[in-house]
Design brief:
With 107 residues, the protein is mainly α. It is built from five helices and two strands, in the order αααααββ. It has helices at 13-16, 22-42, 46-53, 57-64, 73-82, and strands at residues 91-93, 104-106.
């Protein structure tokens, strides 16, 4: 039997895939997950969610299926506000490795 090799992920699948806009995609998907969860809690159909949120049913479907294309972070934050949520973004210094410049990440 052959040994299976495993590589630990970074926590951001988009970065692991080498996508240039990995942080933005990850953040959008996190917001979309929150929206989907809140729609499920309300037990809304996609049509009901669309009416409540002021967007079309196909856009709700895109959110529910994690398709971030065509959504800005600002738009997703607005939808969360319409769902009665306040969104807080924290900025903290990233743990840096020797020789690496200090940068900030959204937590």
């Amino acid at each position: 039997m052959s040994e299976t090799k495993h590589t630990a992920g970074s926590g951001n699948v988009f970065a692991d895939l080498g996508l240039a806009d990995a942080d933005e995609l990850f953040f959008k998907c996190e917001l979309m997950h929150c929206i989907s969860h809140l729609i499920a809690i309300e037990k809304w159909t996609q049509a009901q969610a669309a009416q409540e949120l002021g967007i079309t049913q196909p856009r709700v479907s895109q959110i529910m299926n994690g398709r971030a294309t065509g959504f800005s972070i600002d738009m997703l934050l607005g939808i969360l506000n319409r769902l009665g949520c306040d969104v807080e973004v924290k900025v903290r210094p990233r743990k840096s490795t020797p020789g690496q410049t200090r940068a900030f990440v959204i937590a």
